[in-house]
Amino acid sequence: MNKTITLVITILLLTSCGVCKHEPKIEYRDSIRVEYRDRIIHDTATFEIPVIIEKNVTRDTSSHLENPYAKSDAVVSDGFLWHSLESIPQTIEVPVEVPVHDTTYIEKASETVYVTEYKEKDLSWWQTLKIGAFWWLLAALLLTNIKPIIKLIKKLAL
After folding, report:
1. Which helix (H) or strand (E) holds 24?
2. How far apart are CA 134 and CA 56, in angstroms?
3. Beta-carbon contacts of residue 149 (< 8 Å; ≥ 6 apart)
4. Cα–Cα distance measured from residue 16 to residue 128, given in angstroms and rounded to the nearest whole number
5. Which residue blocks in 15-124 are alpha helix, DSSP H?
6. Beta-bridge partners for 39
7. Model-level pTM greater than 0.85?
8. Can you state the angle between helices 125-144 and 146-157, rounded to 10 degrees?
9. What is the pLDDT of residues 10-65, one digit of tens each?
10. Which CB contacts under 8 angstroms, 24+ apart, belong to 117-120?
11. How confident is the model at residue 75 (pLDDT cuts 50, 70, 90)?
């Protein structure tokens, strides 16, 4: 009888509740931040004045005119006035305001984060039975072997 009870207790202890294994959950995180910025740049635009040549013939005296963009000459020859008008080839700079829309992408390197989640779950009916049966079997073992236990206690007390 003792061997049977010992065998049953050993089998129950070997098949008792075990710890559940939890695999870590892997999360990947990427981060990109976009910044928008509007600003005005003060700049100068350049353009060329086209070369324009005009000539006119009249009966008059000679003359010469000139400004920053053109010059004019008039000459009397054979009773006629020869008049020429030429623009001076040059580049003119004009101040301009240019709106600029900047977009900046700031990207962080992707990182791997390991997260372990522990979830407590209910015991199955078999696990509940094994836990309850342990105490009943322990009590039965103690009651069947009560005489040797009492002798042991008496030896230890003296």
Report:
1. none
2. 127
3. 142
4. 10
5. none
6. 100
7. no
8. 70
9. 776 777 666 556 566 666 666 677 777 788 888 887 877 777 777 666 666 777 77
10. 117/22, 117/25, 118/22
11. confident
